[in-house]
Amino acid sequence: MAAAQSSRTAPRRGSPRGPYRKGNxxxxxxxxxxxxxxxxxxxxxxxxxxxxxxxxxxxxxxVQHFGSKEGLLNAVLRHWDAMAVQxxxxxxxxxxxxxxxxxxxxxxxxxxxxxxxxxTLRAEATGDTHPAHTYVRERQRQAVxxxxxxxxxxxxxxxxxxxxxxxxxxxxxxxxAAMNGMQADWLIDPRLDVLALFGAHLDVxxxxxxDGRVMRG
Length: 217
Known about the structure:
Elements: H1 2-9, H2 18-45, H3 48-55, H4 59-66, H5 69-84, H6 87-90, H7 95-99, H8 101-109, H9 112-124, H10 133-156, H11 165-188, H12 194-210
């Protein structure tokens, strides 16, 4: 009988309660607000005071949660990584990965603020003293590596003819640049049918690959 009462009153694991849960919610609100401010004003132009005003807390509270402005930026970047991932797309093999890029683009468009953030940081963090410089450079490297690996996979499977490593790298970079550029155009003019525009570009690219008409690299 006592054991039964103990099991009823014991807190369930995995369900944050009280101050701990409230603290997590506050951190999430702060990260959302910081992403918005950094997207609109850049890291240099966005202040802790502006972010705190968005959430309704003090700047000292932000420091308490994240240690510094740079610590908050790192939390925002981790948030971007989590939101940008679409596992169902990255699991696609060979040419199917590229055929699914419009779905990935649509996923990004559903998180407009985060697209604005990453494009703003890409422009702002070209200097190696910017706190996001290493992140932006590494993220670009990972994207090129992923697209190159998927294209090499498509070649190995016979989806497209042989390319040299230099050609694979050039094609991967060009396709990424087209997607990033079109997303930037869409942010400037939301009336742009970026899905149709990118889809047409992708069709031409895939047809060119299949015909063996590739960049010199």
